[in-house]
Specification:
Helix content is 42%, strand content 17%. The protein is an alpha/beta fold. The protein has two domains: 229 residues, Dihydropteroate synthase-like (TIM Barrel, Alpha-Beta Barrel), CATH 3.20.20.20; 94 residues, Sulfite Reductase Hemoprotein, domain 1. The protein has a seven-stranded parallel β-sheet with strand order 1-2-3-4-5-6-7. The longest helix has 18 residues. The N and C termini lie far apart (39 Å).
Length: 346
């Protein structure tokens, strides 16, 4: 996925090309505004990459960007929050009609941090089942609309949950193509190891048709996600499975793969500093989430022991989902350390 601001046409087109040249069969870009949508038209002219657009809550932009892309990813959880006067079936049918009109593929992308509330309420205490049932529900909606060119993804930041939800889904619907991913895997090498924990067993079992390795990397290194993906595929094909044990107890840093929604590119640097600063707690069973934007940040830090999510000038600090305050990029590290020390002491 491109990490440059989509409205920055030249940088985004260049990154899309670099990802394509690294071997990416699909390159995803985020479109949140009319300006992003307009920029995508020129990006399309500058790159030969197969483009996937990620719309999140701005699904109505699908009709604008459809001529410029090959595939649309929609998030059922984010679709829940917009145009609540319309039924989910109506919203999905509208997206499907756009895909039909322009010959596009679709991805139903269910994510652990944005599960539709109705499924969380229906399956309390079992977020994995909520993810699977949300995906099943949307598969049913898409199929009832007479559409077949779609894939499903069921992603979590916990590789063991990724194993669980994809196995459950594949058992029920082995006919549906699956896109695999461990979301917010974090920085390498730990992020690659987490991804391998999920991918190696699933791919060995014949589960998974496309993959994405999600790493927190500076813009000039985003192509390393593609390289890591090919290495995993090659190792599985040749029987070299490196992650044979479950994730060991200890400090777990979850950080999102910087994308175009990141409003301050210092996010990646901050994630790296947090990793270094918290090394003294490496043997503690504590999860710290580091998110780069206001779209996914608030929800996807809720389940962490400590969480930070980044805005243009400030960073929000949370503990167990409760907001502790908003701080500058200069202030956040000592404040996070103080909270980590309190958590360890308690």
């Amino acid at each position: 996925m491109c990490a440059t601001p989509t409205k920055d046409i030249d940088r985004t087109a260049a990154q899309a090309e670099k990802l394509r040249q690294a071997g990416a069969g699909l390159v995803r870009v985020a479109v949140d505004t009319d300006r992003d949508a307009e920029a995508l038209k020129e990006i399309r002219r500058q790159t030969k990459a197969n483009l996937v657009v990620d719309l999140q809550e701005n699904y109505r932009l699908a009709s604008v960007i459809a001529p410029c892309v090959d595939k649309i990813r929609y998030n059922p959880g984010h679709l829940h929050h917009v145009e609540k006067e319309k039924t989910m079936a109506d919203k999905v049918r509208w997206i499907v009609d756009i895909a039909k009109d322009y010959g596009l593929a679709l991805r139903i992308g269910v994510n652990c941090g944005s599960i539709a509330p109705e499924f969380l309420k229906q399956y309390p205490g079992d977020s994995s089942l909520a993810i699977v049932e949300s995906a099943m529900f949307h598969v049913d909606l898409v199929e009832k609309s007479g559409f077949e060119r779609f894939v499903v993804s069921l992603k979590d930041s916990d590789p063991l949950k990724v194993l669980d939800v994809n196995r459950r889904f594949a058992k029920s619907r082995p006919d549906i193509p699956l896109h695999l991913g461990v979301t917010e895997a974090g920085m390498p090498p730990e992020g690659i190891a987490k991804t391998r924990m999920a991918f190696e067993p699933l791919l060995s079992e014949g589960i998974g048709d496309t993959i994405r390795v999600s790493l927190t990397l500076p813009n000039d290194r985003k192509h390393e996600e593609v390289t890591a993906g090919f290495e995993i595929i090659k190792d599985v094909a040749e029987g070299r499975l490196t992650q044979k044990s479950v994730q060991s107890a200890g400090l777990n840093i979850i950080s999102c793969p910087s994308c175009s929604r990141v409003e301050n590119e210092r996010f990646v640097e901050l994630a790296q500093k947090i990793k270094a600063m918290t090394a003294y707690a490496k043997d503690r069973s504590i999860t710290i989430a580091v998110m780069g934007c206001r779209v996914n940040g608030p929800g996807e830090t809720d389940d962490a022991d400590l969480g930070v999510w980044c805005g243009p000038q400030t960073v929000h600090l949370k503990r167990k989902g409760a907001e502790l305050g908003v701080f500058s990029y200069e202030e956040i590290l000592p404040r996070l350390k103080a909270e980590l020390d309190r958590l360890i002491k308690s």
